[in-house]
């Protein structure tokens, strides 16, 4: 791990894993510490992962101004990391809500992007968000799972915005609800900065028409990876997001939900490594 200083003076932490060409990785959550990304299913065998702890998460310092948690204001943090690493252009991977930050960075600094990987990202920065009906449809794909009967009513509570839902609905976010998935899900709360989570998409964070217009000029190849069982985003929504990138490719991972590197390591690593190597 190393630390570097953001433009506003906040000390940010970046964890380094693996070997090979550098790949900057932005976590989702939003505002979840990067530790949950692990080694991205073994992508560390192909790439050196630079896992950024966003401000106020993990080993990064809490900023003096909480309005800087807003997604668009964290673009400067990503640029500061690029400068710290001394890279002219970067390969950038982002998961889930982190894809919004990646999209805003690519819109502001298109010349700094070599290749962009967006993993199960709904792209609210582009005006796209998973609807409750899309989430329900994906959840019902799991109706033959032994845990479905208990988990689905709790998932409905979550979709209704209720705060009394049992966390058994976490099963819908994993392609395999096994012991490893349960352990991964159990760490969500203690890895997430809830105050920052609320502020991430605060008013003014996103300007979808402007971002779409800027990304229309992005010349870098973009891989959007969807999970076939994911509802947020479902594959159809990922295809709609891909239309905003001139050089986009969509891959749908079978049997995967929101954390595809856990649901099928071999498939995930092969597709991402191939794309990053120019394939």
Task: Kindly describe this structure.
The chain is of the alpha/beta class. The chain has a single domain (2-131, 192-276), classed as Alpha/Beta hydrolase fold, catalytic domain (Rossmann fold, 3-Layer(aba) Sandwich). 34% of the residues lie in helices and 17% in strands. It contains 11 helices and 8 strands. It has helices at 75-85, 98-108, 132-140, 148-159, 179-186, 188-191, 194-200, 208-215, 235-242, 260-263, 265-276; strands spanning 2-5, 11-18, 22-26, 48-53, 90-95, 113-119, 222-227, 248-253. Strands 1-2-4-3-5-6-7-8 form an 8-stranded mixed sheet, with helices on both faces. β5 (90-95), α2 and β6 (113-119) form a beta-alpha-beta unit. α1 packs across α2 and α3 (132-140) runs antiparallel to α4. The radius of gyration is 18 Å and the shape is globular.
- What does the overall shape look like? globular
Rg (C-alpha, Å)? 18 Å
Overall structural class, as computed from helix and strand content, comes to alpha/beta
Please give the share of residues in helix.
25-40%
Low-confidence stretches: none
Strand order of the largest sheet: 1-2-4-3-5-6-7-8
**CATH H level, superfamily name:** Alpha/Beta hydrolase fold, catalytic domain
Mean pLDDT level:
97
The major beta sheet can be summarized as: 8 strands, mixed
Number of separate domains: 1
The CATH C-level name is Alpha Beta
Number of helices: 11
Q: What proportion of the residues form beta strands (DSSP E)?
A: 15-25%
